[in-house]
Amino acid sequence: MTPAPKPTGSAGPSDAGSRLTVLIAADTFPPDVNGAANFAERLAVGLAGRGHDVHVICPAASRHHGTFLEEHDGQTLTVHRLYSTRWPLHDWLRFATPWRAESNAERIIDRIRPDVVHIQSHIVIGRAVVKVANRRGIRVIATNHFMPENLLEHTGLPHALRATAVRLAWRDAAKTYTHVAAITTPTKKAATFLERSVDVTGVLAVSCGINASDYTARDDRPAGNEVVFVGRVTAEKQIDVLLRAMTLIDPALDARLTIVGGGDLMKQLQQLTVDLGLAARVTFAGYLSDTELRRRLTDATVFAMPSIAELQSIASLEAMASGLPIVVADAMALPHLLDDGVNGYLFRPGDSRDLAAKLTRVFEASDDEYLAMRRASLAVIEGHDIQRTVSVFESLYRGEPVAEAADVPPTRAS
After folding, report:
1. Choices 3.40.50.2000, 2.40.50.140, 3.40.640.10, 3.40.30.10: CATH for 212-383
2. DSSP for residue 64
3. Mean pLDDT computed over 288-306
4. Which of 53, 147, 192, 271 gives the lowest tally of CB atoms within 10 Å of its CB?
5. Where is the Glycosyltransferase subfamily 4-like N-terminal domain (predicted)?
6. Distances 141 to 15, 164, 292, 328, 409 between C-alpha atoms, Å
């Protein structure tokens, strides 16, 4: 392995209370709906709320590009939206034009003169921003949300070539990540994985964080047995595994499933639901407002996440902030969100029968056992507050030593 990335650029203002000009570079940003976009927005809002001058450079969500003052969760951000093109094999993903990204980054950086830039990926905008920042002597922080598997389904590559594509993708990432002052990723498991994939050391685990106070947990047990999934309706989420699990749950439990989100597999999975005889028990809710999403989480019985490519899973954190037990695949970073049998259960990835068995355990738990799982989920969330995350990044921006703000293991209920 190569040594940890060396500090790049100045450390920014040394006064811990000084105002920073921060440029967040993201290849996806709201109105896109995904974990990386949501994190970039929450971080930007949190920094702006502390008085920093926050700019975001990202692809335009349509042909309407330029620099705009945008309202995000009560804070005004300066958002530089670059001309972009929709990826033809995806229902909404747009990329900034690669051959213009560096000149655009140079123009924006020279105009705003940031103290620090914080990239959210290495793909197009992040790569360009790092090159310009390095030339200008500006400190660079990187957060990795990238998993090649999450993009390969939208490339059209044959399955036989995908292992090679993954290796090449990580090799490409290394060309950018070895030129930054610090690298973070949401969990310790993801940090270890990134160190191995990019051949660096010293990757920090910093939770994406959520505003836990935005979510409401019930004091009692819901009357029904309602499973909820929140996320993109796309191949890497393995929603078909969850649907097949629903067919294996004892009909006497009257288990029902709500799928919140949209994506390219919506019609295919809706047809699978009909084919499996689940049409009366499964609801495809599509995209919901924040208020309606939170209500659905509050009123559900258990949250399920069958995906095998999660670097943290913001949706799982939101479920736990709503007091839900979670049943998640024993893959990537998901095991770090629970103590098996305490605030939920792990199941074997891709195994519908095991997933059905673990959901059944939640449904058949006594009231005392079930409520203990709810309390354990709420205890875990205390370590994932967004304000804690913002504080860690403020320190990184200034070149100060930091304590990791990542996985906080559940505490067993007494």
Report:
1. 3.40.50.2000
2. -
3. 96
4. 271
5. 33-212
6. 19, 28, 35, 30, 26
